């Protein structure tokens, strides 16, 4: 249906849903008349166990307050510069992993690798802590990464699982597993938040801390409620991780389907980065992205 129509309605026994890929409709809902298209209680109930009262789940004053603070913080030079350093560092690590796989003719899951790379980057920007899920050097970080991915997948599954609320009430099946995974996520995140709060409150530690990450920036605004910080930062991680990784994955897929374009892309990257050979082309391409 979506191949024939940019906007269509799906009617089920319990819901009526409208889907659109029309740019004019998307702009109208997300920009022109945004106030009229809230997430609503239905989406909030599905997402809140993982995302809490974050920007992806709330409406009204709560959304506006988070949007205002977030917009200001992301416009600061400190956070922009810090983000650039973090992403370039992880791009170099990603390029090294890809080069090693290429040299050894190793088959890799490119989307999984992109997901881990973007998670490492946004986690560092969010908490100021190295997760290193790409290389798996931290067992605790790997456990968090796996639990976070599984929690995200099972939360989305609620949209098609008509019995998820019953499963949650009985604590069985996918809902029992979701609960366990969220507990792993919360334990790791709350530990980092409490550690950062203690550092910020300690005059000796505070003077030596670089307040570049999102968590530190929010703590400087005197927002010290761990639950609030947990919710808003997990929402940032969701936003920064999946979007970039999915876009890169689709880009690579389309390149593979159209080999005649690959050389043109490589040449454009080399020209933009002022290089004359293919040395570290993977790094240059990812940096240009």
Distance between the termini: 32 Å
Strand order of the largest sheet: 1-2
Oligomer: single chain
- Output the helix-strand order: EEHHHHHHHHHHHHH
Tertiary shape: globular
Query: Ranges with pLDDT <50 over ≥5 residues?
Result: none
In total, how many beta strands? 2
Please, what is the average pLDDT? 84
The largest sheet is: 2 strands, antiparallel
Helix content: over 70%
Structural class: mainly alpha
Q: Beta-strand percentage?
A: under 5%
- Radius of gyration using CA atoms only: 21 Å
What's the helix count?
13
How would you characterize the overall build of this protein?
The longest helix has 32 residues. Strands 1-2 form a two-stranded antiparallel ribbon. The chain has 289 residues and is mainly alpha-helical. Helix 6 packs across helix 8. The protein is globular, with a radius of gyration of 21 Å. It contains 13 helices and 2 strands; from the N terminus they run E-E-H-H-H-H-H-H-H-H-H-H-H-H-H. Belongs to the cytochrome P450 family. This is Cytochrome P450. It comes from Acer negundo.
